[in-house]
Design a protein that fits this description.
Blueprint: H1 8-22, H2 27-37, H3 42-63, H4 65-73, H5 95-100, E1 116-119, E2 129-132, H6 134-148, E3 158-162, E4 177-180, E5 185-189, H7 198-208, E6 212-215, H8 217-229, E7 238-242, H9 248-258, E8 262-266, E9 275-277, E10 283-285, E11 290-297, E12 300-307, E13 318-325, E14 340-341, E15 343-344, E16 352-353, E17 359-360, E18 373-382, E19 385-392, H10 398-411, E20 417-422, E21 437-439, H11 445-448
Parallel strand pairs: 3-5, 3-6, 6-7, 7-8, 18-21, 19-20
Antiparallel strand pairs: 1-2, 4-5, 8-9, 9-10, 10-14, 11-12, 12-13, 13-15, 16-17, 18-19
Helix pairs in contact: 2-6, 3-4, 8-9
Bound molecules: zinc ion.
Zinc ion is lined by residues 278, 280, 282, 284, 332, 334, 336.
C-alpha cells in the first residue's frame, strides 16, 4: 500500500484507522481458524475448502449479476460446484473481464461503507479495481500473521521499510520515519534511503532496537548493503519480505547480513492466492486462503485463484498472470500439507534509482491518469535518466506526453531526465511475462563483492 504523505497527525490517525481495519473484530476469529487449519489432514483441508467454495459460489449466484448470467449461459446451478475439481466447468476470469464487468461483479447486498477499493496499475491495460470487504481485510491480515507468528507477536518492535511515502519526497533531512502509534512499528520511508541518508537510518534503527524487519526485498537489500558498508553488525529475529520477487542471492545477502532468516510472502492486489515461506524456508501455497490452480505453461505454471473469503466481490478462477515453478514430489518436513512451490517468477522485482540514489519500486502509478496509453514500461540504464517506453493509442497527444513527464518527475525526482519513447511493441520476458520495470543499472556491485551473493 502506498501512503500518500500526510501531516504527522493525519498520518497517526490513518495508522489507527488502518490498525482497526487490519485487526478488527473478525481478526481473532480468523486467526484461530487459520491456526487450526495449519494442522488439518489433507482430507480435513479438502472438506474445509469444499465447504467454503460451496458457500461462496452459492452467494455469488444469488447476489452477483455477473455470476448469475454466467451460470445461466452455461446452464449450471451453483450445486454443480461442489469441489475444486468442479471449477473446471467454469471459464477463467481475467483482469480484462473484471475491468469490463466491474459493476456486475459486486454484491450490492454486501457492499457497505466499510468496504475498500484496491486498484492495480494500468501498465498492462486499464487499471482494474477490486472491492474488499471489512471481513476480507481482517482475514488477509490474519493469514499474514499466521506466518509472522512463527517469529513475533502483535506489538513486537519492528520496522517497516517499504514503498510508503511517510515523509515528503522533497524532505532532505531526517527524520525519514514516523512511529505508528497503534503498535510498536517504526514506519521508515524506503524512498529516502540513499548514500547521504543511510547513516541517519542506521542510527535510528540502532536506537529503536527492532526485532523484526518488514520490507520490500529491494529495500531490505539496500539496508543490508548500508549495514555492511558502514561495518555495523545488527541481528533481527526475522526479516519478512513481500510485494516483490525475492531473488535467491538477495535472500542470502540479507540473511547473512542480519544473521537471521528471511520469510517471504507472495500475494497480489486481487488476493486470490497467497504463497508463504514456512519455518523451514519452503514456499507453501496457502490452501485455506483461496483455491489455487496451477495452469501449465511450458516448464512453468500460471497461478489462478478463487476467493474463499471475499463475498462482496468474489473472484472465481481468476488468472493472475503470475508464474511459479514447482518441483514435483518436493517434500517439506515442516509438517504442513499445503503444496510446495520451488520458486516464484511472477512479477518483476526491479526498481528504479533516482539521481539522488532513492530506490523506487512502486513507480507504476506514473501511468495513472494518462489517457491513450495501451502499455507502458519503465526502462533505466543510467540513474540520471528514465525511459518511458509506451505503446500509444491513436488519440495520444502532446498534452498526454507532457502529463506523463510531469507524473514521472513527481514520482521520482525533479532531477530525473525523462524520455518518452513510443514503440510498436514492448517485448516480453523469456517466460512471456510483461515487465513493468526493466532495470539495467550496475547497482549491485556491493553484493557482488560477497561470495554469498555471487549467483545474484
Ligand atoms: Zn514447510
Amino acid at each position: 500500500m502506498l501512503l500518500n504523505w500526510k501531516p504527522h497527525k493525519l498520518l497517526a490517525l490513518e495508522c489507527w484507522v488502518r490498525h482497526w481495519y487490519r485487526y478488527g473484530i473478525c481478526f481473532d476469529h480468523y486467526s484461530r481458524l487459520l491456526q487450526n487449519n495449519a494442522t488439518l489432514s489433507p482430507q480435513g483441508l479438502q472438506a474445509f475448502q469444499n465447504q467454503r467454495l460451496q458457500q461462496i459460489v452459492r452467494e455469488a449466484y444469488r447476489d452477483i449479476p455477473y455470476y448469475r448470467d454466467l451460470f445461466s449461459s452455461l446452464k449450471l446451478k451453483p450445486e454443480a460446484i461442489q469441489s475444486a475439481a468442479d471449477l473446471r466447468k467454469l471459464p477463467y476470469l481475467t483482469k480484462a473481464l473484471v475491468v469490463a464487468n466491474f459493476d456486475k461483479l459486486i454484491s450490492r447486498k454486501k457492499r457497505n461503507f466499510l468496504c475498500k477499493v484496491a486498484k492495480t496499475s494500468g501498465t498492462t491495460g486499464s487499471p482494474a479495481q477490486f472491492v474488499r470487504s471489512f471481513e476480507a481485510i481482517n482475514f488477509e491480515n490474519a493469514a499474514v500473521w499466521r506466518q509472522w507468528r512463527m517469529k513475533c507477536q502483535p506489538g513486537t518492535r519492528r520496522i517497516t521499510l517499504r514503498g510508503e511515502v511517510v515523509v515528503p519526497m522533497r524532505q532532505s533531512d531526517p527524520p525519514f520515519w514516523r512511529l505508528n502509534p497503534a503498535n510498536q512499528e517504526l514506519l521508515m520511508c524506503g524512498f529516502h534511503l540513499n548514500d547521504q541518508t543511510a547513516q541517519a537510518y542506521l542510527r535510528q534503527i540502532l536506537d529503536f532496537q527492532p526485532q523484526i524487519l518488514s520490507a520490500y526485498p529491494s529495500n531490505a537489500y539496500a539496508l543490508a548493503r548500508y549495514f555492511r558498508r558502514h561495518k555495523i553488525s545488527y541481528q533481527f529475529e526475522a526479516v519478512f519480505t513481500s510485494s516483490e520477487i525475492l531473488a535467491p542471492g538477495v535472500r542470502r545477502f540479507i540473511e547473512e547480513t542480519f544473521q537471521t532468516q528471511v520469510y517471504d510472502w507472495y500475494g497480489q492486489a486481487e488476493r486470490v492466492a497467497a504463497i508463504a515461506h514456512c519455518q523451514k524456508g519452503t514456499y507453501h501455497i496457502q490452501e485455506d486462503y483461496s483455491l489455487v490452480e496451477l495452469i501449465p505453461k511450458g516448464p512453468n505454471f500460471e497461478i489462478a485463484g478463487t476467493h474463499l473469503f471475499n463475498a462482496v466481490m468474489p473472484l472465481i478462477r481468476y488468472r493472475t498472470g503470475d508464474w511459479v515453478r514447482v518441483n514435483p514430489g518436493q517434500f517439506c518436513d515442516c509438517g504442513s500439507h499445503f503444496r510446495t512451490v520451488a520458486a516464484i517468477d511472477g512479477r518483476n522485482c526491479d526498481f528504479i534509482v533516482t539521481p539522488e540514489g532513492y530506490h523506487i519500486s512502486a513507480a507504476n502509478h506514473i501511468f495513472h491518469g494518462v489517457a491513450n496509453i495501451l502499455e507502458g514500461q519503465l526502462y533505466q540504464e543510467d540513474t540520471a535518466c528514465l525511459i518511458l517506453k509506451v505503446v500509444v493509442g491513436p488519440g495520444f497527444t502532446e498534452e498526454d506526453r507532457n502529463r506523463l513527464i510531469r507524473n514521472a518527475r513527481e514520482n521520482t525526482s525533479e532531477r530525473m531526465g525523462i524520455v518518452v519513447e513510443e514503440v510498436e511493441h514492448i517485448p516480453r520476458a523469456p517466460n512471456g511475462k510483461f515487465l513493468s520495470i526493466v532495470n539495467r543499472l550496475p547497482i549491485l556491485d556491493d553484493a557482488m563483492e560477497s561470495p554469498a551473493a555471487a549467483s545474484f
